[in-house]
Description:
52% strand; Porin; single chain; mainly beta; 15-stranded antiparallel beta sheet
Amino acid sequence: MKKNVGFLALAFGMVFNVTAQQDKHFSMFAESPVYMNPAAAGFFPGNMQLFTNFRMQWLPVSDTPYRTITAGTDWRMLDNGSFMGAGVNFYNDYSGDSKYMINEVTFPINYAIEIAKDNHLAIGLQPGWYQRTIFNENLTWDNQWTGTAFNTSYSSNEVLLNENMNLSRFDISAGAYWYAHLSRQTKLSFGLAGSHLTKQRVNFMSEDSRLFRKLTLHGQCEFKQANSNLSIIPAFYGFVQGPNKELTLGSNFRYLLRGSSRVTGYFEEIAISFGAYYRLGDAIMANLIFDISGLSIGAAYDMNVSQLTVASNGFGGFEVFLRYRVQFGNGGLGNPSIH
Length: 339
């Protein structure tokens, strides 16, 4: 039974045409907001950043748990107060005995208008390529049951699933993003994005089932105490995608171990950050992040608190990320620790 849980949702979706689709989500969503919103490209200290993330989820529930990998880069150009941001992102999700796989390649691009000093409003667009694949060589069916075991030499009689299936479609997203330094101690960012605007087909067998459009709202603040090395950085992330809804709330607490000068800024700092978040009705999450002169390493763990704890025993997901930021000469957005 445990081995088949990973494929259950997929089987119901294909056979009974259930359309409860839901996109990827990450516990450390604030560390790379361009994955949520193309208008966030280029909003970071320096001129370019590279980011990679790995997430594993539902290990106690299935022998083949969900595994997600992301990799991407974004950069800022034509920077003269207002600027243009651009990037390339790759996403791969792999799960279940069917090796059900989703691949996405996206190309965020935006333009950020300088409303005032350290205050920008950006509009972004993100064309992309979206692919779903099922590999059925590891699947077994009731027609192959001998009474004691499955015999894969028997025909499954599943005519539509005799071969691996692949589906590729064009995808597009759009968003708006506001980032501002209100004072030396206060910084804010808020974003609104719409994903899968083409509402592309996701059903392998017909045109009837299409990917739900997704509306995302996210934000982050930083409040730094005067004459203190401690910053409080609350953040939230929420989306609506068809019948699926999610809201995550929480905060990181960042302590500056080594400060910076006005010249070197962010790229001389060393800091440690601890965060606690709650994904409503699903999980409690904790993270730990080290920032070392442009290099960031972080890890997060989800403790499942939903009704799925009967199967998961409270174990949710484990996530790690690595980020590196580069500055070419002068430029950048000062010394922001929010993104």
